[in-house]
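Hi, here's the filled form for the chain we discussed.

Project: internal
Contact: R.S.
Residues: 307
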Amino acid sequence: MAIARDNAASLFAEGGASTLRLILYLAGAITLMVLDHRADYLQRLRRAANVVIEPTYRLAGLPAQVARATRDAVVSQNQLADENRGLREQLLLALARLNRLDALLAQNERLKALLDAQHDLGLAVQFAHLIDVDLDPFRHRVVLDVGADQGARVGQPIIDARGIMGQLVEVLPATSVAMLITDPTHAIPVVVERTGLRAIAYGSGATDRLELRDIPRSADIKEGDRLITSGLGGRFPAGFPVGIVATVGIDANGLFTTATARPSAALDRSGEVLLLQDQPQPYGPPATLGGAAAPAAAPAAATAEGP
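And the returned structure, exactly as it came back:
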């Protein structure tokens, strides 16, 4: 029992000493806080402590900063990739629209040129689109979107706004095939506009060249001369542009002059053409004003047949 009382006394004694120390510490802390609040005596100490502790704070927050920076970088990269993808798509779409607009403008120019040619020539024509092209060295053909159902027929000449392109060689119900003047098997009668010299322009197998062969050595033909259809043969009407003489020379035997010409028509670029219709040819004397000549001719004929 005596031992138990001694232990309890020591415990209470230690508790009283601890409480006293706590009170002293609190009093000292309050005193320092008051003094620091009134006179800022511990300002330098706090600054020194901050200098010492700040690296610890930064080191402790470094993993979070690295994680946040990594997340921002990944998000930013993904956003930039999405934005770049969207911008590329918009650019491609804009370029496609621009190219389409250029194509439409070029098509409008070609159509306007065709309409102007039709108006200037005053001919009966039929409009057609090219739907296929065959331009190998041995065969220059194009397919048009008009056929027998639209009145197309074999032998019908086709032109563009610049000149003769060729003629129809096959007509189907809804389409037709035309042979270009540069086809190796094609030939067209022409005349030199400047001198009236007649010749035959043969296809060379190249879309930019026609050949004129067996021209007399004394013939007057030179570079830059304009070739037009002569009307001979009855296939192509006279007066349509065919080409421009590019070179003039002598054949291998030295007997004849030869020449090459650039076709006037845009054979490798035209997408729309005109089919020439037959032009009515007037027969007999021209009608007089008021139609008086026709009644006069009938009695004369009757009188001649009467006796």
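Let me know if anything looks off before we file it.
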